[in-house]
Specification:
By secondary structure, the chain is of the alpha/beta class. The chain contains eight helices and eight strands, in the order E-H-E-H-E-H-E-H-E-E-H-E-H-E-H-H. It has helices spanning 17-26, 49-58, 76-82, 97-106, 152-165, 183-189, 198-201, 206-215; strands spanning 4-7, 32-37, 63-68, 86-90, 110-115, 133-137, 171-175, 193-196. The chain is globular, with a radius of gyration of 16 Å. Bound molecules: D-xylitol-5-phosphate and zinc ion. Zinc ion binds next to strand 2. Zinc ion (ZN) is lined by residues 8, 33, 35, 66, 175, 195.
């Protein structure tokens, strides 16, 4: 199973965003993860369409946009136009999840659903065919640099089983507290796509850190 590493620019030095993105791209990053926060769904404010558009000009890597906002559908068109390749929306604020996911697909983007740590997997059990990606939060969203919630490992395992039982080829992504010490546990549980902010951008050698994380996603012989 292939592994994707998605550095989150939430932890980047935004005054040097072009250099930061070039650095992770040179280090072998697969996607760039962009955390959109509205100060309502989560107690923090971050980026909007303008930043997505700027990042689009800096890299050819797919832009993985994580919407931590209420009424995410208000942003689908502008984010797709700005260059998002995937949009991932929280089930907790998406009462019409099936329609919302299909709208993302209609706009030519990968459609993802996200579950907070306290949200059960059955929040997505009826929309598995509509998912290109399932994101399991491994911290409560809102901030970078938080501690990985250990109980997430079993949830990832059950999510992998649920996708497999339904014949889904959706990516299984994890986000929050992913670093050298936690990545292997979620990889073994079945995750294939790993967001990392603090672990990469605050590493001594961020470029090499991407390889370090990837190297931990293997079976030791
Ligand atoms: C958290 C965001 C994450 C964040 C992860 O709310 O969704 O993408 O950037 O940061 P780390 O890897 O530092 O926990
Ligand atoms: Zn995120």
């Amino acid at each position: 199973m292939s592994v994707r590493i998605a550095p989150s620019i939430l932890s980047a030095d935004l005054a040097r965003l072009a250099d930061e993105i070039a650095m992770v791209e040179a280090g072998g990053a697969d996607w760039i993860h962009i955390d959109v926060m509205d100060g309502r769904f989560v107690p923090n404010l971050t980026f909007g369409a303008k930043v997505i558009e700027s990042v689009r000009k800096l890299t050819r890597l797919p832009l993985d946009v994580h919407l931590m906002v209420v009424e995410p559908e208000n942003y689908f068109e502008s984010f797709a136009e700005a260059g998002a390749n995937g949009m991932t929306i929280h089930t907790e604020v998406s009462p019409h999840l099936q329609r919302q996911l299909n709208r993302i697909r209609e706009l030519g983007c990968r459609a993802g659903a996200v579950l907070n740590p306290s949200t059960p997997l059955n929040a997505v059990s009826e929309v598995i065919p509509d998912l290109d990606l399932l994101l399991i939060m491994t911290v409560n969203p809102g901030f970078g640099g938080q501690q990985f919630i250990k109980g997430s490992v079993d949830k990832v395992r059950r999510a992998r089983e649920m996708l497999a039982e339904n014949g889904s080829t959706a990516y299984l992504e994890v986000d929050g507290g992913i670093d050298r010490s936690t990545i292997k546990s979620v990889w073994e549980a079945g995750a294939d796509t790993f967001v990392a902010g603090n672990a990469i951008f605050n590493a001594k050698d961020p470029k090499a850190e991407i390889g370090e994380l990837r190297a931990r996603c293997t079976i030791e012989v």
